[in-house]
Write a structure and sequence with these properties.
mainly alpha
Length: 98
């Protein structure tokens, strides 16, 4: 079986959702009438797992991983670095504003 781009993307989506579920597992889910703090992360993670499984199931239509051009990797790395810096500095910048 050839590893395809959608296999990797679906696997990453599933792994990320499971990691978020593990971290947010102690939050109360509540009920539909009175949702708790863990309701939205649980719903989003369930959808991420569902879409990850769908990606893996439909991966035959995506190009093989070996044929993907990585020419946009420097741009993606810059976007990831800027996003990580913004997330890290968010609380500092938010608390310093009047």
């Amino acid at each position: 079986m050839t590893l395809r781009a959608d296999h990797v993307a679906g696997g990453i989506a599933i792994a990320t959702a499971i990691a978020v579920l593990a971290v947010s597992g102690d939050l109360p889910i509540g009920t539909l009438a009175f949702p708790g703090a863990g309701m939205l992360p649980t719903v989003i993670c369930a959808l991420m797992i569902l879409f990850g499984v769908l990606l893996i199931a439909r991966a035959g239509q995506s190009p093989p991983l070996a044929e993907i051009s990585w020419s946009d990797l420097p741009h993606a790395a810059r976007v990831l670095a800027i996003t990580a810096a913004a997330v890290a500095l968010y609380t500092t910048l938010a608390s310093s504003s009047p």
